[in-house]
Structure formats: C-alpha cells, structure tokens
Amino acid sequence: xxxxxxxxxxxxxxxxxxxxxxxxxxxxxxxxxxxxxxxxxxxxxxxxxxxxxxxxxxxxxxxxxxxxxxxxxxxxxxxxxxxxxxxxxxxxxxxxxxxxxxxxxxxxxxxxxxxxxxx
Amino acid sequence: xxxxxxxxxxxxxxxxxxxxxxxxxxxxxxxxxxxxxxxxxxxxxxxxxxxxxxxxxxxxxxxxxxxxxxxxxxxxxxxxxxxxxxxxxxxxxxxxxxxxxxxxxxxxxxx
Lengths: 119, 111
Prior knowledge:
Radius of gyration of chain A: 14 Å
Oligomer: heterodimer
Distance between the termini of chain B: 40 Å
Radius of gyration of chain B: 13 Å
Shape of chain B: globular
Distance between the termini of chain A: 37 Å
Number of helices of chain A: 0
C-alpha cells in the first residue's frame, strides 16, 4: 500500500523560531501534495497544494511567507512555519496524491500528522 | 462558498447496532465522495469512496449517495467499540483533487 511518512510527529518550540515539517512518500511518487491544518475539534483545513518542481498554491487566508512549502522532489515536500507564534499551534497533516496509485480514484494518502506547540 | 456539513455529535450507539452518519454538500458539481475515520490525535484513514448514486458496500460499511438531494451517508453495521472515532466526510469537485472536509461526526459505540 501507499505510505506517507511525516516527521516530526510532534514538536515544541519557542515563539519566534521556525519549524520544518517533512512529508515523504515512501513507496510511490507523489506529483501533488497537500498540507492541512487541524485545530482541536475542528475539521481539516487545506492550507496549500504543492506540485513537484513548481510553486505551491495557497488557499485564501494562508500567508505564503509564513508557511513556506517546498516540493523539490517527487517523494518529499516540506512545510516550514516561520517565526512561529502560539496561535500557530495546531496539528499539521500532509497528504499525497500518487502519479500512479490512486490517481483514478482521487484517493489521498495521509501522513501521520505533526503536532506543533509554540510556547 | 463550497461547504460540507455534518452533525458534530456525539452519536452514541450500543455495541452491535447500526450507526448512521450523514453528510450534505452544497456544490452540485461535486464528483467524488469519501468517508474517513480519524482517531483522536491521529491522521485520517480512508474507509470508503463513492462516485455513483446508490449504495456501495464494503464489509460492515455501506456508503449511500444521493446526488439529487446532495447527501452522502455511511452506515456501520454491527458497530464495535473500536469504531468509536470521528468520521469525516470529504468531497471533491470534477477536475480537482482538492478535498473539502466536513467538520466530522464523533461516534461513540457503547460496550
């Protein structure tokens, strides 16, 4: 099956620092990856869509200079939360759309999620 | 604004009963419909997807889609305590793989 690995699974940082979260597709090539954010007891909110080799497309209200997304290869996308503040504390989840697996069904394969706590 | 609506619950059912979860969506152009299960603190895992009107069965799970009424439901037969989780409905529009998620329904199966 398709496996998406996300790292770190949790991170605590001080306000003002930057945090990088990695999302890797382990056994397939992911042409498109999506980054979601989920606050407690709320649904997943799409932050941005990243395509390998091109700039990410951000959803309305998401600051691209604060949430830097890089999709440099077909198996890796990174999300960097720059100058993090306590209100950025959330559960960040990546998902991948395979170029071969699941493309016809539209199935997304989710990473395990990364819980960010900004003090 | 494209929306996907779900009752937040909690929906409590006794073990062995049928749990019925409902979802409505606003975009008539929606093409694909997904049900995900999410345990607390974990990422979602796919249960089923459905594209066509009618029922689709997979084990204890049945997804039902009615495009005219713009709703999709998930039935869980013989509910087990391990089914206790939040169930997320997700919808995509033709030509895009952007998922719109509902807020989820929290299901509690009582032993």
